[in-house]
Amino acid sequence: MGTKVPFKEKIFFSGGLLGQNILYSFMSMYILFFYTDLLGIPATTASLILVVASIVDACLDPVMGMITDKTRTKWGKFRPYLLFAPFLIAATTVLCFWDFGGSPTLTLVIASISYLLWGMLYTVCDTPLWALSSVISKDPDERTLVVTLGKIGGTLGAVAVTIGGIQLLLAFGGERNTDAYLYSAILVAAIAAVSIFLTGLTSKERVTPSPDKISFKTNLQTIYKNKPLLALLASLLIINLINGIRQSIQLYYVIYVWGDAVYVTQVGISLVVGMLLGMVATPKLLRLFSKKKVFIASCLLGSLSCVIPYLFGDENRMFALVFFGISFFFSGMTIIVSTSMLLDTIDYSEWKLGFRGEGIVFSTNTFITKFSGAVSRIIIGTSLGFLNYVENQPVTPGLQHGLSFVMFILPALCFVAAIIPILFYNISDKQRDRILSDLEISRAL
């Protein structure tokens, strides 16, 4: 069904996702805090900057997907963007964390423009990087393995920031020092740029694109005529809120509920252990149960693992950390299952419509991720506003209870809500086998 992807190539692909998630996680975890507590931008205004920029950027994602689907170069469809864009986004990342010391108005303008530019350049790297996984092999098992390794690499990248980000800031002067964020951003951006570049340099695209030119209008059919994809994207819109909410609120939570920013490290350890175990366990479970059943079960159990520490262990840090790890285990399962399902929808598109549309599928997934990020920031901004949060405010029981609710109950509700759209995902294991068989025959003609 296709040659295996060399081990070296898999490692570099995983490394590219590691670097990308180091970059994304650093931005997700610290940019709002940097804006509110370092630059002095009001919480609601800072949240509005992130939300508006995310929405504008997200709307450009499908356009980027269609551009990559029409790209034809000697390097392939997706690799050129991985070779030339990473260093641009690295420079923009540094700009986002640069305190120019100007007036409040100038600070606001620079923050708005730099974050908008960052999001646009992130898309230029993110869409081709994930789309590459769909053309790296014709073998669906190899693609799933590559995706799993990529997700593991991405998780390690997120964990590296969750555990080491605060240590990095402390090494450069502490979380209340603007230079600490600048120097940390320089280091993070450099690591990310090099790792993504190496992915583009070492990867190969083994699924040859169709020589037929597909118009933008026709390419859009990949989305609106692909019912399984629509159901999956709706579910991902909700499930992505879980990590978005937690990444944005956890620094506030550990500072004001647990009393010390250093506890971010312990949360990161729970994340890495839970997510990696969940990701490793998922391929084995998929050999025993359907993808749909595994996804639904992981959501139900993930919701339960969020509610328990809220009810019984909010003041017991070790108890809460254990259940953080358990909930991250089920989050890891949903990540692998949903990505494997996404690859199946691309095969479904080729089977039903005659073209794959990898670029627009993954760019739409990126759109969903960013839109979820915007919604999560709206939720965080609204929550902080509702709690009357101001930087360095005294700790109150009301603030602690509110942050705990956001940290535990909102993710629990998202887990449950994500089940509803996935009930309409209709690619069964039997149909998937038929699709792959039919595609093998049609590709051989």
Automatic annotation (TrEMBL):
Presence of the UniProt keyword Transmembrane helix in the record: yes
Residue ranges of the TM segments: 12-33, 39-60, 81-100, 145-169, 181-201, 229-249, 261-282, 294-312, 318-346, 402-425
Disulfide bond recorded as keyword: no
Recorded topology in the membrane: Multi-pass membrane protein
PROSITE patterns, sorted: NA_GALACTOSIDE_SYMP
InterPro entries tied to this protein: MFS_2, MFS_trans_sf, Na/Gal_symport, Na/Gal_symport_CS
Keyword terms, alphabetized: Cell membrane, Membrane, Symport, Transmembrane, Transmembrane helix, Transport
Main subcellular localisation: membrane
Pfam name, any one: MFS_2
Database matches in Gene3D superfamilies: MFS general substrate transporter like domains
SUPFAM superfamilies reported for this sequence: MFS general substrate transporter (SSF103473)
Cellular localisation: Cell membrane
Matching NCBIfam families: gph
Protein name stated in the entry: Glycoside transporter
Organism: Paenibacillus borealis
